[in-house]
Design brief:
- With 345 residues, the chain is mainly alpha-helical.
- The chain contains 16 helices and 4 strands.
- Helices cover 47% and strands 5% of the residues.
- Strand 1 and strand 2 form a beta hairpin.
- The protein starts with 6 loop residues before the first helix and ends in a 10-residue tail after the last helix.
- It is a single-pass type II membrane protein.
- It holds the Pfam family Sulfotransfer_2.
Length: 345
């Protein structure tokens, strides 16, 4: 059953299943401490680990049930991803490593953690967490948005030697957080094109308006502001885009190469805090470090939700929606998201 499930999770599941009645719930989600050496299960550490993922109950039974649920969830996500990879990308993990496949992976050495950046799936707050873990910041609250993205000084896996990359992929915890693809796309559009932006308007906006808007005004062509969602989708689906792909809407199946990298932990934006805090406890993060929930970019704007996503996609016809679904088809398959519209096939 567990052949494709990470060894550490399999070991934890065995502990849950056979030993939880007479022993502590788990000594760690992973068998080693963050620095790779065995760490004694102190009373303090046991209490910390039992706080995994916002458990609804403080009773031992409640803690066991929550831990079992989260372990089963990881098992299910890994099994699904493994099945899809075997079906659609057989043998990909045996191919030579490319720089691009690890170009979005950040390395936190002290916790032996690899994190693949997926924009619009909590990546700003994940970078803050990595900065705290690395010791470059005391609190996630102290890190402004631009500092998290442009001043984080976090190393990327692509900057290591081939041997260093191989060793870290083998021994470090590898984390991936994903989001419902249509919702992630709408979130990116709202962020980059409906708010003032000194990069996306002149670089992407001007090119999109020039290519896809008939009788565009000189003001629109000059500023690049006011791109509509339909124009943005036309750009996205154009095989000869006037400007290239961008990581904010690139499919996760391409951005993070999940079939090749074989992530240890697969979290979802829809359960972001619960999944992230479970991961942080499992790697032995400091007790006072929890995943932040604040939104510091366009804080007055409503967060993109499934209902907002439906409104944006209702601006498209059925054919256009189908083409966008086809564009993100592998993401839907790999991460088990249901079809967002009933007429999709």
């Amino acid at each position: 059953v567990f052949e494709t499930w990470p060894r550490s999770f399999t070991k934890t599941w065995v502990i849950f299943k056979h030993e939880y009645q007479t022993k502590p719930l788990f000594s760690s989600l992973f068998s080693d401490s963050p620095l790779g050496s065995k760490q004694p299960l102190t009373k303090r550490r046991r209490k910390l680990l039992l706080k995994s993922s916002m458990a609804a109950s403080s009773s031992p039974t409640g803690q066991v049930e929550v831990a079992l649920q989260l372990a089963r969830m990881q098992e299910s996500r890994h099994r699904l991803l493994s099945d899809i990879c075997a079906q659609y990308q057989p043998g990909v993990d045996r191919r030579p490593l490319s720089q691009r496949q690890v170009s979005r992976v950040y390395v936190e050495e002290r916790s032996r953690l690899l994190y693949c950046e997926v924009p619009k799936a909590g990546c700003s707050n994940w970078k803050r967490v990595l900065m705290v873990l690395s010791g470059s910041a005391a609190s996630t609250r102290d890190i402004p948005h631009d500092a998290a993205h442009y001043e984080n000084r976090l190393p990327r896996l692509s900057g290591y030697s081939r041997a260093g990359v191989t060793e870290r992929l083998r021994s470090y915890t590898k984390a991936l957080f994903v989001r419902e693809p249509f919702e992630r796309l709408v979130s990116a559009f709202r962020d980059k094109f409906e708010s003032p932006n000194s990069y996306y308007h002149p670089v992407f906006g001007r090119a999109i308006i020039s290519r896809y808007r008939a009788n565009a005004t000189h003001a629109a062509l000059r500023s690049g502001a006011g791109v509509t969602f339909r124009e943005f989708v036309q750009y996205l689906l154009d095989v000869r885009r006037p400007v290239g792909m961008d990581i904010h809407w690139e499919p996760v199946s391409q951005l993070c190469s999940p079939c090749f990298l074989q992530f240890t932990f697969i979290g979802k934006f829809e359960s972001l805090e619960r999944d992230a805090n479970f991961l942080l406890r499992s790697i032995g993060a400091p007790a006072n470090l929890t995943f932040p929930d604040f939104k510091d970019r366009n804080p007055l704007a409503e967060r993109t939700s499934s209902s907002i996503t439906q409104k944006y996609f209702s601006q498209l016809n059925a054919t256009e929606r189908q083409k966008v679904f086809d564009f993100y088809y592998m993401d839907y398959l790999m991460f088990g998201y249901p079809k967002p519209f009933s007429d999709l096939h």
